[in-house]
Amino acid sequence: MIFNTSTWSKYVFITLEGSSEAVPAGKLELLEEGIRPTASTFVYGNKYLQRANATAVDPVSMPLSEAKKTREVVFQPPAGLALFGAIRDAAPDSWGRRVIENMLRAAPNGLPETDYLAHAGPHRTGALDFRDSPTSPAQPGKLPDAKALSYLLDAAAMIQEGKPVPKKLQLLFSVGATFGGARPKAVLLDDNRQWVAKFPVARDGFNVPLVERATLELARQCGMRVPTTRSVHLPDGRDVMLIERFDRVPLPEGSFGKRHVVSALTMLKMHESDTASASYTDLSDTLSERGAVGFVAADKLELFKRMVFNILVTNDDDHLRNHAFVWDGANKGWRLSELYDVVPKPQVGSERFLVLGVGPAMGRLATLDNALSDAGRFGLLKHAAAEIIQHLSSVVREWRTYFEAFDVPKSECDKIASAFRKPQSIGLREVEKV
User: Fold this and answer.
1) Where in the numbering of this chain does the HipA-like C-terminal domain appear (predicted)?
2) Contact status, residue 142 vs residue 171, Cβ threshold 8 Å
């Protein structure tokens, strides 16, 4: 079969720290055969490279140091990838693609990658944008408030059912097309802050919005960095979780700055299909190499806690897109982002696994002794790591108390109880011997 070959050229804009206005960083060219991307190139603009606060669009595949050393160097993605990781991060993933397909009346995965990039809108994750010329203005992007939640939920339900969204509900097209993950969501403005609204799905086996919020608040009790969360109970009985966007910063004049975000997938130069070969220690090593000055130890500790927490609550959706890094220009490096997308998964089996590797000998096996086995790679002494594991175990053991405090009914707690594991049965005894 012969496919038409086309080249898509756009200027990549980036919003730098402390500003609400994006500036052109360089030019992207993407080659497609039919709807499939096959190759891409990127060249930084000379004017951008002269900026004192210039930030690498992709720290791994487009390093500024190389661009400044050899002007107009043409960057290409890592071997085996058609797209640069940071460009891929700025594109919509599963849910956002479904929104765009509904908007354009297209079949599932039936559009060129460039269409998904072009239609993700002004609210996409992170600080990047794509425009036709260096002087093109930003797309208008007024955000709805929480009063629009019922409309957004109705539109999301129609998309899940494969039905065209009527004009009166098409607000979702502008505020729901940017995000990844399979679950429906949208962005809104409330109390002068930007929030991701996460919606229920008809096939859910439990109240996911309430449970996810309570799980994040449980993680906060364990000492992890978690964005502000809220629950909204609509008059028709539906629940929505709001989580504040960590990639948006309110500015004094009422506008918003953007934080440059890349996924762990990008930092490790990997394709989605490679995720199972990655490990938490790979992410820890990334912090050692690229972490913000003065925060490396704290972020490695945070990462260790998240790994242990995922084991305790059976969050086995810990793939590389669910870990992110945020640029910290003041401290000249990357911070581990705030925690997001953590949902317990009820299971019957006693032997469980995470997506990412936990320890060197037992791989992805989700046990506490496996987590302890490579504590040194997180900058922790064994006894200190053991104390952390014991503390998290003691907090998570009281999960029902915290969940009920965040309005999760007992009936919903019963549905997810099998996700919360008894620490003694998954290696705590071995940890306590350290």
Assistant:
1) 179-399
2) no
